[in-house]
Inverse folding.
């Protein structure tokens, strides 16, 4: 019984995300966090293909990506289910994640892994999407606070 209650309230891919009144920022953020969790899984796989011993930077990235993929997935679910806490936790996650992802991109460039145009577009594109989603979530948070403050004065 508890699992049916859970599945009725929280779905991995809710149909409501296709409604016209579904917030676009929640849709994009949910999609990005789902993709980010898959991307970090792929990073772990690719880092595991590097010959040992790993550098200190690669070891840090392995631990970070292994830990970060779980909250990314949870935030994807939360955004697509329109949970209010997702905005704040999404901002916190991206404030921590963006510099580390930037460090990863710089390390990949330094080691010559960004020679391919496809790899460049994926690595730099993921960093750009982090910045875009972070900015949009901060703007959404600010707008929600301003709207709440404005409605409080009207009463």
């Amino acid at each position: 019984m508890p699992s049916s209650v859970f599945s009725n309230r929280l779905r991995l891919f809710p149909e409501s995300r296709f409604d016209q009144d579904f917030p676009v920022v929640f849709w994009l953020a949910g999609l990005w966090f789902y993709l980010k969790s898959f991307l970090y899984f792929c990073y772990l796989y690719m880092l595991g293909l590097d010959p040992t011993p790993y550098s200190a930077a690669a070891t840090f990235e392995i631990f970070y990506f292994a830990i970060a993929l779980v909250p990314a997935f949870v935030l994807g679910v939360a955004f697509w289910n329109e949970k209010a806490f997702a905005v704040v936790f999404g901002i916190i996650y991206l404030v921590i994640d963006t510099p580390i992802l930037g460090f990863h991109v710089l390390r990949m460039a330094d080691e010559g892994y960004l020679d391919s145009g496809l790899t460049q577009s994926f690595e730099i594109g993921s960093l750009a999407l982090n910045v875009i989603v972070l900015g949009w979530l901060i703007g959404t948070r600010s707008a929600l606070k301003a709207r709440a403050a404005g409605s409080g004065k009207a009463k």
Observations:
- The chain has one domain: 24-154.
